[in-house]
């Protein structure tokens, strides 16, 4: 009886083990990229009370468009350049291309004008090739001389490579940020790791392929911020009107969203389990090479230099079939011993009577 209960408890504990292997692929899932330029605006001294006006007006007067930041974009040798005819006119607009889609967002950045900056995110529609940097991303970032003159040697770009291939989150720890300086050529190597988990009672995981853990965290942050605010940012999935003035967005980012990052958003009891199939990108930025001193642009190559991918697969160490097998063997052994004992008792009694 004790053995049977032990087998049952072992099955309920859901023990697992993990296998590790190296596989080769001809293409990989492409990560999302966000490009932020500093300075993000074309002035250091806005007009008086400009922050109280609508964001669309502020962006029209001082904003730098996507085509002015990303002069050239190639994905597997195919163009993903925003282009001057495809300008992103307002914060909710997108540039939809055959190879990718560009969106934009506003982030808190205490070094820039009004403590906010405008960034552009590339959402690829195709996987990346392997071994050749022209089969990955190729970006030519540009900066006008009058823009660079605003902050001199501090002028730069930041490229965020997002960990989640399905959601470009601005939350701290959800991306790898690489700084790019003007007049440099930069190479970024990508590698990938796949982790396949088994859902158990002690360590559950989400089996829905459309589930995104970073998006779940972002929605959780939005829910925790919404009770104290009367407007929302464009990415927030809550029933509030959009923040329309620069002052509202600045205050929201500084006092709310940025504070959530400092307080570790994963401590908010968000109930965001890990996906049962998780993909993790690893980046390695090579030392930049200096280019022509008269050229203010920067070249960025992002690609997979190897076909190899690390695959970690979690397996059940003690499944239902094993429990039934061991329990059945235990019961069978118990019954077998009992029948032999009954036979010995009956036979002994019978032969004892015959001898008497």
Automatic annotation (TrEMBL):
It comes from the Eukaryota. Belongs to the amiloride-sensitive sodium channel (TC 1.A.6) family. It is found in: Membrane. It comes from Darwinula stevensoni. The chain crosses the membrane at residues 331-351. GO terms for molecular function: ligand-gated sodium channel activity. Keywords: Ion channel, Ion transport, Membrane, Sodium, Sodium channel, Sodium transport, Transmembrane, Transmembrane helix, Transport. Pfam families: ASC. This is Uncharacterized protein. InterPro entries: ENaC. GO terms for cellular component: plasma membrane. It is a multi-pass membrane protein.
